[in-house]
Amino acid sequence: MKEAKIDKSHSQIFLINGWVLLFSFFLFRAVYLTVMSFGYVAPWFFNKYDMAVQIEDYSYFEVILTNVMFAFYWVLYLMNLWWFYKLV
Fold first, then answer.
1. Rounded to whole angstroms, how far apart are CA atoms 57 and 51?
2. What tens-digit pLDDT sequence spans the chain (88 residues)?
3. Could you give the CA distance from residue 30 to residue 34 in angstroms, rounded to a whole number?
4. N or C: which end of the chain has fewer CB within 10 A?
């Protein structure tokens, strides 16, 4: 893959914008989602989640749909990490 070379024609605001976007992507997508996912959601989901109790409170379809959405969330999270790796 050919690396982009920075032209001298780009203004300083263009470079500052790029660094701010890189930093904000890292801060919110890589750091914040990791803390929320592994610090709060995953421990609660694996320690306190009882599917039998949930099926009593909600329908079976809603519980299965929640599990499927949770799995897709992890796929999205891994894609975000991959995009950040490619961005850097």
1. 10
2. 566 666 666 678 888 888 888 888 888 877 887 787 777 777 666 666 677 777 788 888 888 887 788 888 888 888 878 877 787 6
3. 6
4. N
Closest CA to 85 of 38, 1, 26: 26
Contact 22, 87 (CB under 8 A): yes
Could you tell me the pTM of the whole model? 0.50
Write out the DSSP string of 29-66: IIIIHHIIIIIIIHHHHHHH--HHHHHHHS-HHHHHHH
- 14 contacts 69 by C-beta, under 8 angstroms: no
DSSP H/E element including 88? none
